[in-house]
Amino acid sequence: MHSGKEPRNMNCAVDDKLYFRKGSRSTSQRVVQASERERLFKEFHDSPSGGHGGLNVTFRKISQRYYWRGLMSYLKIKVKQCQVCQNRELWPHMKVTSKEQKQAKRKTSLKRTAGGKPNSPLTSHVLDTARGSPAANLRIEVYHLMAGQWKKISEGQTNSDGRCPGLLTMEQFIPGIYKILFDTGSYFKANNIKGFYPFVEIVFEIEDVNQHYHVPLLLSPFSYSTYRGS
């Protein structure tokens, strides 16, 4: 619903008490009230489908359907304030001095082993339940859902104990939706096993970056299971 005042200096049409901006585009843009802008930003930027796509992606998505004066300036401020986007270095030319980012860097420097190597916040362990042994030399890939698309951010291989401890660094560890792909087909072939699953994908969400996430896989040729470990 609109406030009863027609927007100034715009070529607008009114349809069912909503203002639509008319221009050269084939589709019109709905003129957005100030009270709606925060909701739209969360929908097109913060949500899993938005994927924290940064300034240009968010602007393109919103401007396809909506309009308000100063949209780009509004998005610049909101994206700059987004801790997730800052961690992804989507603003490499801007000086970021937020308290939250300084704290995140401090946590990264503290989470280290005695040998000086950082502890991985995401680990996995694959057990071959049919053979009763760890699944060694099984290839693993990690993907992050960004702007509605899966982007591979890490890969590795299980050791002789079936573990893959260093899947992500602390710098990569940000809230979002992730996927681990296990190349089970190659593992079965290398061990002369006829398996049913050429690969296994486990999708999960990271909310609290201060926690450790362990995603194990219990695997056999015709079944598999997983659970949230720690």
Per DSSP, the total helix count is 6
- For the record, the count of structural domains works out to 2
Query: Any low-confidence stretches, pLDDT <50, length ≥5?
Result: 1-7, 13-17, 89-118
CATH architecture of the largest domain: Sandwich
* Oligomeric grouping of the chains: single chain
Q: What would CATH call the homologous superfamily of the largest domain? A: Transthyretin/hydroxyisourate hydrolase domain
Major sheet details: 6 strands, mixed
Give the distance, in angstroms, between the N- and C-terminal Cα atoms: 48 Å
The CATH C-level class name of the largest domain: Mainly Beta
Rounded mean pLDDT is 77
Principal-axis shape equals: elongated
The beta-strand count equals: 14
| Rg, alpha carbons | 23 Å
CATH topology of the largest domain: Immunoglobulin-like
Q: Report helical residue fraction.
A: 10-25%
Classification by helices and strands: alpha+beta
Strand residue content = 25-35%
